């Protein structure tokens, strides 16, 4: 039963809700907007405090747009008008002298105005200028939780879920008698609705959501936040680059003879008190330390995926699968450049991995400690995930990539044609159609952006737009030719589910609907390479529901890239595997979140150590020649691109350690077609077989392995073996040891 404590808190809110009875129409009394210390939202009955940000404002346009500017994107028109001394506003423009930037938000539905100064007076001045603009429908406040650097955009959208025993008549009565109007009923089990206020605006939307939460008919009511990472504005506060400036930038890089790498794409903060666990990016010599896992190099040291098929030629770069080739190069870091050239020559000559590694490392008698997941060893004793369906909830998924096209889920008989008409290979919750790939309209927009951006910004735009393609490749790439890459589980079937826009932002409603959609289509594993949201009752309920109705389903999510210990959602919800990231050195990746809530870690990459080769190599989304007509191609080796067309990209983040874990689970489930092992047992085996053997922290933090790495680095070979052998599968690991020292 719902707690009544929230009624006390609601007494101080800006709207006083007076309910005379359940059968009479309620009266709303307008009151003053709440002060900043009164702001909160309700996570079921828990009040989550909020602060108003004064460095950004979101804006909704009037629809339809006013001619003759209706063909110009709203965010561009707003920026142009605010920067001009004479604008189409009802008051003089006092904001032209302010430093700000405007960018699209949620596929150009809104505009986001960033004010780097964060000055309250300038913020209020900018707010008034925007409000006076004739094309502006409403201002959307941006909030944050205390101690969190985030942007929570508050649109005029509220999510309401009615109690299960409430009748349809009672639901319609509430919708009719309160100052809200129905947007739509959500495609979820139960009685969940998306509504908007007919009276409230700005912060009063938050107040209304809290008031509705207090009604006995309603299980929960909460805003439909648009949650953004701080980097969403930080990466945009920079001078504009012309393409000519970008070309000069590359020429300068070439003259210097160094590789520059774009700043972490997720706003990495430097760890003030935790240098030891991040590692020295210039010191790779310690990787050569001999351990119990090292072995003599022979021509047959690396097993192939199948007895008769050679590994693709790009496999040596995929250190997360087998770190041997790169770490052999790094035993003598002074020779790293020459070693990379030698590896590249081997690839160009088409030599298979064994000959290439043996040629380079013939002078060494032992291999370095491996910091990978031992995928080749797992492939040798498995069907590589055949018969397992992995749903990828993410951005654009170009499933016709040559390394992905043979592994895509096909729906022969649509389950819900009224809700998802025409679905064949998944669903796009952004475009509300069955095509998860780039649409012609999106392609035109992306091509325009690439022409306007600097090389670094262009490559970052591709990583953001095709994030789902990159993630899918980590799980299931299966090159049909000698050139290409491999996923952790090359034979799994991928169910593409697009729920993120071109900038990588997910709507809470899309997220929840995508989770239930994937579960209802028989997904064995759901990969969620996104996060950073505050806890929300909608997503929490959707996850709890699918875990109950699908007892073998496993959900995997990234811990986040903010380099802090606070819980990040959806990874921190009960029943979800939270995945941190490690680098080639075995340290926690500098960006990876950590804490007691982390379950396991996996390679997530670091595109700055050693140079770009420390990243995760995976499938990109722009390999077609026609995409690049009239556009300058990429510059491989400088930012993220592996090749000029972006067929393959180097990436980093918990977004990519997460699909590594999903792939390992796919391998495990592939050897358990009868689903002998339930979800709890599979997750237990994954944790029990993870280890700290190749992981590194500073001496002062040697007792904190679990805090930084959860149960440890996943081991595909050990996990697979434990899931196959009943005796080992029934074993319970009581403790983990490192160098014979008890950790816990």
Low-confidence stretches: 1-32, 235-308, 360-365, 729-744
What does the overall shape look like? globular
Classify the fold: give the CATH topology of the largest domain.
Rossmann fold
Strand order of the largest sheet: 18-19-17-20-21-22-23
CATH superfamily of the largest domain: Peptidase S8/S53 domain
Helix content: 25-40%
Total of domains: 4
Can you count the beta strands?
27
The CATH level-2 architecture of the largest domain is identified as 3-Layer(aba) Sandwich
Q: How big is the Rg?
A: 26 Å
Structural class: alpha+beta
Distance between the termini: 38 Å
The helix count comes to 21
Q: Give the C-level CATH assignment of the largest domain.
A: Alpha Beta
Task: Indicate the proportion of strand residues.
Answer: 15-25%
Largest sheet report? 7 strands, parallel
Question: What's the mean pLDDT score?
Answer: 81
């Amino acid at each position: 039963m719902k707690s009544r404590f929230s009624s006390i808190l609601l007494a101080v809110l800006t709207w006083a809700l007076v309910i005379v009875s359940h059968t009479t129409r309620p009266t709303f009394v307008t009151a003053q907007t709440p002060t900043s210390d009164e702001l909160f939202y309700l996570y079921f009955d828990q009040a989550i405090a909020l602060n108003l940000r004064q460095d950004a404002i979101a804006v909704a346009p009037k629809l339809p747009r006013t001619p003759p500017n209706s063909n110009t994107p709203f965010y561009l028109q707003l920026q142009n008008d605010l920067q001009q001394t004479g604008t189409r506003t009802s008051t003089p423009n006092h904001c032209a002298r302010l430093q700000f930037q405007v960018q699209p938000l949620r596929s150009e539905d809104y505009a986001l105005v960033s004010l780097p100064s964060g000055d309250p007076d300038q913020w209020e001045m900018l707010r008034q200028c925007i409000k006076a603009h004739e094309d502006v429908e409403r201002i959307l406040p941006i909030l944050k939780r205390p101690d969190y650097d985030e942007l929570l955009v508050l649109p005029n959208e509220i999510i309401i879920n009615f109690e299960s025993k409430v009748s349809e008549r009672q639901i319609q009565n509430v919708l009719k008698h309160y100052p809200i109007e129905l947007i739509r009923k959500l495609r979820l089990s139960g009685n969940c609705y998306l509504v908007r206020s007919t009276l409230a605006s700005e912060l009063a939307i938050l107040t209304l959501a809290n008031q509705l939460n207090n009604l006995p008919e309603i299980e929960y009511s909460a805003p439909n936040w648009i949650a953004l990472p701080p980097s969403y504005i930080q990466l945009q506060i920079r001078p504009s680059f012309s393409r000519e400036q970008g070309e000069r930038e590359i020429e300068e890089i070439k003259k210097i003879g160094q590789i520059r790498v774009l700043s972490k794409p997720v706003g990495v903060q430097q760890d003030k008190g935790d240098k030891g666990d991040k590692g020295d990016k210039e010191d790779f010599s310690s990787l050569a330390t001999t351990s119990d896992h090292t072995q003599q190099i022979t021509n047959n040291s690396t097993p192939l995926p199948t007895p008769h098929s050679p590994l693709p030629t790009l496999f040596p770069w995929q250190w997360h699968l087998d770190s041997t080739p790169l770490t052999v190069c790094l035993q003598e870091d002074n020779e790293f450049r020459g070693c990379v050239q030698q590896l590249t020559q081997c690839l160009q000559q088409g030599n298979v991995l064994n000959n290439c590694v043996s040629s380079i490392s013939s002078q060494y008698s032992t291999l370095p400690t491996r910091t990978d997941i031992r995928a080749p060893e797992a492939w040798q004793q498995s069907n590589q995930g055949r018969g397992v369906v992995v749903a990828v909830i993410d951005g654009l998924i170009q499933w016709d990539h040559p390394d992905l096209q043979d592994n895509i889920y096909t729906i022969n008989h649509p389950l819900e044609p009224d809700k998802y008409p025409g679905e064949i290979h998944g669903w796009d919750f952004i475009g509300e159609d069955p095509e998860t790939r780039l649409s012609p309209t999106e392609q035109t927009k992306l091509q325009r952006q690439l022409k306007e951006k600097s090389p670094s910004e262009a490559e970052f735009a591709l990583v953001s737009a095709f994030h789902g393609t990159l993630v899918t490749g980590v799980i299931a790439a299966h090159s049909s030719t000698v050139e290409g890459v491999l996923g952790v589980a090359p034979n799994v079937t991928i169910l593409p589910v697009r729920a993120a826009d071109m900038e990588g932002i997910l709507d809470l409603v899309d997220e929840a609907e995508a989770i239930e959609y994937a579960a209802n289509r028989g997904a064995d594993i759901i990969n969620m390479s996104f996060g950073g949201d505050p806890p929300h009752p909608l997503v929490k309920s959707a996850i709890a529901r699918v875990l109950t109705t699908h007892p073998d389903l496993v959900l995997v999510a990234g811990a986040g890239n903010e380099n802090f210990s606070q819980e990040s959602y959806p990874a921190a919800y009960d029943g979800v595997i939270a995945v941190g990231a490690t680098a080639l050195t075995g340290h926690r990746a500098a960006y990876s979140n950590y804490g007691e809530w982390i379950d396991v870690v996996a390679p997530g990459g670091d595109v700055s150590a050693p140079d770009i080769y420390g990243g995760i190599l995976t499938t990109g989304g722009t390999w077609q020649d026609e995409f690049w007509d009239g556009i300058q191609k990429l510059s491989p080796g400088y930012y993220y691109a592996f090749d000029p067309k972006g067929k393959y990209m180097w990436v980093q983040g918990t977004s990519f350690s997460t699909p590594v874990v999903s792939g390992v689970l796919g391998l495990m489930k592939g050897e358990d077609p009868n689903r002998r092992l339930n979800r709890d047992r599979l997750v237990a085996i994954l944790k029990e077989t993870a280890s700290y053997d190749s992981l590194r922290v500073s001496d002062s933090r040697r007792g904190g392995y679990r805090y930084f790495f959860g149960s440890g680095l996943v081991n595909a070979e050990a996990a697979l073996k434990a899931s196959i052998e009943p005796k080992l599968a029934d074993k319970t690991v009581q403790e983990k040891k490192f160098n014979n020292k008890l950790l816990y």
